[in-house]
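User: quick one, sequence for these tokens?
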């Protein structure tokens, strides 16, 4: 006798249900009456009292598969950090990593530069960026490389960079936002408040030099 198409799979059905089905077929009853026959044969076995493992197995959920194949349960995506060309530690505690070495004009003290940046806390949590995280649209900022207008740590990261280059730097609070008017600072109240709330902790800036004006 050929099995019903519904049961042609590697999942084993509960023995009680399989037994009730064979009884129903042998007695000439229709498949519609199989469930009724099962309940009549086992009136004292409500569904809610079925063993949890048996019920899960019947539903096709096999927990052992998740342990054997964790990639099925929670696929992991590998995230690779960009290779660092060189790392430099400055006397005031700023750590600079050269990620991409540009090929354009070099930024010098007193220059006016246009940059994109991402600011994060030292634990990696996002604080602010000139690039929208969802659309990818950027709103670069123009910053003078002047101690009175830019946080000193970022100035040190930018000086010596060439247009097209990218650097990452860890800036201690002593050379960070010691003054609320120092750039870069968001114009919007929310992002501005968020950034300044972390002014007394190290911040990571990932910056790309777009132009030397």
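Assistant:
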């Amino acid at each position: 006798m050929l099995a019903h198409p519904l049961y042609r799979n590697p999942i084993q059905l509960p023995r009680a249900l399989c037994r009730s089905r064979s009884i129903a077929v042998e007695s000439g009853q229709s498949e519609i009456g199989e469930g009724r026959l099962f309940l009549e044969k086992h009136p004292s076995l409500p569904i809610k009292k079925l063993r949890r493992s048996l019920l899960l197995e019947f539903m096709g959920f096999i927990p052992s598969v998740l342990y054997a194949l964790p990639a099925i349960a929670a696929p992991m995506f590998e995230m690779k950090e960009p290779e660092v060309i060189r790392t430099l530690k400055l006397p005031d505690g700023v750590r600079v990593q050269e990620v991409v070495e540009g090929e354009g004009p070099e930024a010098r003290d007193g220059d006016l530069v246009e940059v994109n940046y991402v600011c994060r806390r030292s634990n990696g949590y996002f604080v602010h960026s000139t690039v929208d995280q969802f659309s990818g649209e950027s709103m670069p900022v123009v910053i003078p490389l002047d101690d009175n207008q830019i946080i000193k740590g970022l100035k040190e990261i930018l000086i010596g960079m060439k247009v097209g280059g990218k650097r990452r730097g860890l800036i201690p609070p002593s050379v960070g936002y010691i003054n609320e008017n120092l750039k870069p600072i968001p114009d919007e109240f929310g992002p501005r408040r968020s950034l300044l709330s972390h002014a007394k902790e190290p911040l990571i800036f990932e910056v790309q030099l777009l132009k030397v004006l």
